[in-house]
Amino acid sequence: MKKTFWIFCALIIFSFQFSVFNCTAQIVDSTEIKAEQVRKHSPKKASWLALIPGAGQIYNKKYWKLPIVYGGMGTTSYLIYYYGNLTSIYRKEYVARVNGNTEDLSTDPEIMEMTDDGVSLTRNVYRRNMEISVAACAIVYILSIVDASVDAHLFYYDVSDNLSLGVMPKIDFNPVTKVATPSVALVFKF
How many domains in the chain? Predict the structure, then answer.
């Protein structure tokens, strides 16, 4: 009596789960599933969405990559802003010194102690750092697009336990010399 009661309860719970989550069981050919899956997840769509930083990663459901994309874009954007401001300050100082304009000279004691050549060299260093930051930002942006595209192409890649590479001992027999030679074989299972 208890056994049938528990079986009855299990069947009710099981049927309730299927009705709540709209689960249906079907036997479908695996080639039909793969063709349907490929149509649902498009690498082209992922690449277009990746033009908005992070959107391609969200489309591919790789949420853990968002902090990497936004961290790289944010860091390089801040460095562009920081070095751009310093470049602007030293450029204005250099132009004011060359033109003899004393009203536009900086009141910063560190800049006041520099020579004209020192101000020019410092401006060039900051401009170079700003340009490197712009290049780094572009690289991070392009890499995020490439990453989204590659992830979309590999979205349905089979990484199950049925795929493996094993190393097994093997004996090769040479029919001409009638000698058996021990060797090692790489065995693919799929």
Answer: 1
**pLDDT value for 26:** 47
Q: Which of 134, 164, 186, 155 is nearest to 45 (CA)?
A: 155
pLDDT in the model for residue 38:
44
Burial of 93 (0-12, 13-18, 19+ CB in 10 A): buried
**Amino acid, res. 23:** C
- Distance in Å from the first CA to the final CA of the chain: 47
Write out the DSSP string of the chain: -HHHHHHHHHHHHHHHHHHHTT-------HHHHHHHHHHHS-HHHHHHHTTSTTHHHHHTT-GGGHHHHHHHHHHHHHHHHHHHHHHHHHHHHHHHHHHT-STT----HHHHTS-HHHHHHHHHHHHHHHHHHHHHHHHHHHHHHHHHHHHHHTTT---STT-EEEEEEEEEEETTTTEEEEEEEEEEE-
Q: Which domain holds residue 74?
A: 2-189
Extract the tokens encoding 143.
């890499």
The CA-atom distances, in angstroms, between 112 and each of 119, 129, 172 are 9, 22, 83
pLDDT at site 190? 61
Q: Tell whether the model's pLDDT for residue 44 goes beyond 80.
A: yes
User: Does residue 107 register a pLDDT over 90?
Assistant: no
Report residue 75 as tokens. Answer: 């860091």
The pLDDT, as a whole number, for residue 19 is 41
